[in-house]
Amino acid sequence: MDFSYLDIAKFLPHRPPFLMVDEVLDIGNSHVSTAFTIKPDCIFNENGFFNEAGLVENAAQTCSSIVGKSFFNENDLEGQGTKLIGFISGIKKVIIKECPKVGSKIVTNAVLKTRFDTDDYSVCTLSCTTTFQHIELLSCELNLVIQELK
């Protein structure tokens, strides 16, 4: 399925300059794949490289889209029916092997491991990897809290 028509900014609470996902490559109820091209004016750039904090933020934004997706109506392709807030509640592990250069297009894949829903929020654990040209840059396991703003 082609997800290139989705404007991810309409579904994530982040806004430039803090939006670290450009496009959704694939998404389902338990997985997601995103892409992000690191622009020269990105706030997480240091000495020509996308830094560690940027890699973790990209992973968290990618991960949040799996659970966030469930808050939206399937026909809401503009992201207008729901407003969400999310945050990292815990980093179980993170391994950063390399930081990519500015201009690189990274691909991040996440898989939902566990999810607990209440009436007010969802708590989830996800595993995630980020690559550049099939070279692993980051692997991590994150806990996130996603909440719908009423």
TrEMBL record:
<dbReference type="InterPro" id="IPR029069">
    <property type="entry name" value="HotDog_dom_sf"/>
</dbReference>
<protein>
    <submittedName>
        <fullName>ABC transporter permease</fullName>
    </submittedName>
</protein>
<dbReference type="Pfam" id="PF22817">
    <property type="entry name" value="ApeP-like"/>
</dbReference>
<dbReference type="InterPro" id="IPR016776">
    <property type="entry name" value="ApeP-like_dehydratase"/>
</dbReference>
